[in-house]
Amino acid sequence: MHRTARLRTSLLSLAVALAATLTGAVTAAAPAGAAPAAATDAGPVVVHLTGMGSGPQNIAAAAAQDHLRRQAAELGFAGSQCRVTEGPIFQYVTANYYNAMIKATCSGDPAVTTPTRSLNRLIGPNGEHISTVWNVPPGYHVEGSLGQLYTTPHEGAVPLYHCVVRRDNFLSGDVNCEGQTYVSRLGWFYPGQPAGVGSAPLMRCMVGKQREFFESNATNCEGQTSGGQLGWIFTG
Asked: Among 65, 63, 53, 60, which Cα is nearest to 19's?
């Protein structure tokens, strides 16, 4: 009983220290001199991160924390913009060896370190598509780039958002996600074809009997069903 109580106390202290360390360390790791994007009247960026680590419990938790901190810093988030939402969760492997997982949500306007980000189309294990400029969720891999989104407001461009309906991911130029669930702001794209700028169509497409959404540069939706053109994406 005393050993169990000590373990619970240890894990509680670890979780408290983890939240404090994440807040301070991510702030220190953010790129110096970078300013947040101006996003007047635009919805916030919301990114869900998962940190993973392995080893003895304290080492596994520290490794997962470091993994989480590095991801947040790479995306330009300050520690004050991130909060731990779950973990550390330990999976026993063998002897004194564990896998650890920590989840966090970062929201607001990340520091801008580049004028554009690649809008990548991802595919998951069940064929579900996500198009995002942010992190690749566990189990997904990149199919390819659809073009570039501006990271700050740009002349002639409007915000593009990641939304969800019935657990199906789709993109929209509407901050209200056309009455569906808001996930995150991705960046800025063109509602109409820009003059003198390299661009490609950004199409909303659907595949299969369930009409699962995906995005494409092909006006014929790669032989699938078209849901209409969202706009034009910068290609350089």
From this structure: 65
